[in-house]
């Protein structure tokens, strides 16, 4: 075999993760690194992701390795439990999935965040995502007057 | 990480695309950037595509209460009252309003007072300008045929109106110009109200709207 079967990833806080190459290939970012450099036994740094988040992402990648014995139902149940997490964890996860470029994981977390958003007020959204309200008081009042139905 | 959660713009767009219209309307006041996203035509088109293709209950059913001429919208298992300007449906010829569409979620209700474009999901209403010809007699209404749709080439919303009796006339409204113009067309003597015409070509069903658009874009 020309390719190494194992790949080592190094998180931002220095922890090493030795994983199957097939698992790592689900990240397009790592796929590009492997294709470009084909590092044998080299360590691939993942400077944007800490160990706690990386282990969670890898858990997802392992589960989603193409496995003919697992049917769709199993995945959707597992996925649902996987994203049943606090907002900060989801935030870290989506940033990691974005950096590592794992589209199905990004989709999964976007779905989850959107479902959490549904019943929220704009104030709460600003608080969660640390967004400054750049509308004036008058503009906001005017908005609520015109689209009051959307706030009920 | 708790206090510097700033999501990149493309992820924010991905999340907003998954929200129903009511939430988008509410969250468009989160900040100016979000407002801009929700008003962006590219975003709107994508949101519409996503809603069309999803089967997770994003579809809405509009319920018409004929006694009080009011509407409710059933979506995501919640029933919302959709207030309308009552004048929109007053003076109707029939007890039940004549509503053309929907086309991309937009309806085109028709009453004696004129035509309206109405998006029940965003509560936006736009009255169309006066048509170039109007009914002088009640029975003429029965000889008026209309179609409302979107021109797939120009992405423009159009209303086509034909009068077959006592004289044959045709007129076209385009949203981009917000005006009516009379058309120089050979209006057929009879137009099938079922709105579906069986084309002999390749055994394909084409709708009245398709056929009209072919005539209009000539």
Automatic annotation (TrEMBL), chain A:
<dbReference type="GO" id="GO:0016567">
    <property type="term" value="P:protein ubiquitination"/>
</dbReference>
<dbReference type="InterPro" id="IPR001232">
    <property type="entry name" value="SKP1-like"/>
</dbReference>
<dbReference type="InterPro" id="IPR036296">
    <property type="entry name" value="SKP1-like_dim_sf"/>
</dbReference>
<dbReference type="InterPro" id="IPR011333">
    <property type="entry name" value="SKP1/BTB/POZ_sf"/>
</dbReference>
<comment type="function">
    <text>Involved in ubiquitination and subsequent proteasomal degradation of target proteins. Together with CUL1, RBX1 and a F-box protein, it forms a SCF E3 ubiquitin ligase complex. The functional specificity of this complex depends on the type of F-box protein. In the SCF complex, it serves as an adapter that links the F-box protein to CUL1.</text>
</comment>
<dbReference type="Pfam" id="PF01466">
    <property type="entry name" value="Skp1"/>
</dbReference>
<protein>
    <recommendedName>
        <fullName>SKP1-like protein</fullName>
    </recommendedName>
</protein>
<dbReference type="InterPro" id="IPR016897">
    <property type="entry name" value="SKP1"/>
</dbReference>
<feature type="domain" description="SKP1 component dimerisation">
    <location>
        <begin position="104"/>
        <end position="150"/>
    </location>
</feature>
<dbReference type="InterPro" id="IPR016073">
    <property type="entry name" value="Skp1_comp_POZ"/>
</dbReference>
<dbReference type="GO" id="GO:0009867">
    <property type="term" value="P:jasmonic acid mediated signaling pathway"/>
</dbReference>
<comment type="similarity">
    <text>Belongs to the SKP1 family.</text>
</comment>
<dbReference type="Pfam" id="PF03931">
    <property type="entry name" value="Skp1_POZ"/>
</dbReference>
<feature type="domain" description="SKP1 component POZ">
    <location>
        <begin position="5"/>
        <end position="64"/>
    </location>
</feature>
<dbReference type="InterPro" id="IPR016072">
    <property type="entry name" value="Skp1_comp_dimer"/>
</dbReference>
<comment type="subunit">
    <text>Part of a SCF (SKP1-cullin-F-box) protein ligase complex.</text>
</comment>
<dbReference type="GO" id="GO:0006511">
    <property type="term" value="P:ubiquitin-dependent protein catabolic process"/>
</dbReference>
<comment type="pathway">
    <text>Protein modification; protein ubiquitination.</text>
</comment>
<keyword id="KW-0833">Ubl conjugation pathway</keyword>
From TrEMBL, chain B:
<dbReference type="Pfam" id="PF07734">
    <property type="entry name" value="FBA_1"/>
</dbReference>
<dbReference type="InterPro" id="IPR036047">
    <property type="entry name" value="F-box-like_dom_sf"/>
</dbReference>
<dbReference type="Pfam" id="PF00646">
    <property type="entry name" value="F-box"/>
</dbReference>
<dbReference type="InterPro" id="IPR006527">
    <property type="entry name" value="F-box-assoc_dom_typ1"/>
</dbReference>
<feature type="domain" description="F-box">
    <location>
        <begin position="7"/>
        <end position="47"/>
    </location>
</feature>
<dbReference type="InterPro" id="IPR050796">
    <property type="entry name" value="SCF_F-box_component"/>
</dbReference>
<dbReference type="InterPro" id="IPR017451">
    <property type="entry name" value="F-box-assoc_interact_dom"/>
</dbReference>
<protein>
    <recommendedName>
        <fullName>F-box domain-containing protein</fullName>
    </recommendedName>
</protein>
<dbReference type="InterPro" id="IPR001810">
    <property type="entry name" value="F-box_dom"/>
</dbReference>
């Amino acid at each position: 075999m020309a390719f190494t079967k194992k790949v080592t990833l190094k998180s931002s806080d220095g922890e090493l993760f030795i994983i199957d190459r097939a698992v790592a290939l689900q990240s397009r970012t790592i796929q590009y690194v492997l294709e470009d450099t084909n590092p044998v036994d080299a360590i691939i740094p993942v400077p944007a992701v800490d160990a706690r988040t990386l282990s969670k992402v890898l858990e997802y990648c392992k589960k989603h390795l193409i496995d003919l014995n697992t049917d769709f139902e199993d995945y959707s149940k597992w996925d649902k439990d996987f994203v049943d997490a606090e907002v900060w964890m989801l935030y870290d996860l989506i940033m990691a999935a974005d950096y590592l470029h794992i589209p199905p994981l990004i989709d999964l977390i976007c779905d989850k965040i959107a479902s959490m958003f549904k019943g929220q007020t704009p104030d709460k959204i600003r608080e969660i995502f640390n967004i400054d309200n750049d509308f004036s008081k008058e503009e906001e009042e005017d908005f609520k007057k015109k689209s009051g139905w959307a706030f009920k | 990480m708790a206090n510097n959660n700033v999501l990149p713009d493309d992820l924010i767009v991905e999340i907003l695309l998954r929200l129903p219209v009511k939430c988008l309307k509410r969250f468009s006041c989160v900040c100016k950037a979000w407002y801009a996203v929700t008003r962006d035509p590219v975003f709107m088109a994508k949101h519409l595509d996503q809603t069309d293709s999803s089967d997770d209950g994003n579809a809405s059913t509009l319920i018409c209460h004929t006694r009080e001429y009011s509407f409710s919208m059933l979506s995501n298992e919640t029933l919302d009252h959709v207030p309308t300007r009552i004048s929109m449906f007053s003076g109707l010829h029939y007890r039940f309003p004549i509503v053309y569409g929907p086309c991309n979620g937009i309806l085109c209700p028709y009453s004696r007072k004129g035509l309206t474009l109405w998006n029940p999901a965003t509560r936006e209403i736009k009255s169309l300008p006066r048509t170039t010809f109007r009914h002088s007699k009640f029975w003429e209404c029965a000889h008026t045929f209309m179609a409302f749709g979107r021109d797939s080439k120009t992405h423009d919303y159009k209303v086509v109106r034909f009068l077959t009796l006592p004289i044959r006339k045709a007129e076209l409204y385009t949203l981009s110009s917000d005006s009516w113009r009379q058309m120089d067309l050979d209006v057929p003597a009879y137009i099938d109200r079922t709105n579906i015409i069986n084309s002999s070509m390749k055994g394909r069903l084409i709708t009245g709207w398709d056929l009209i658009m072919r005539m209009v874009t000539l």
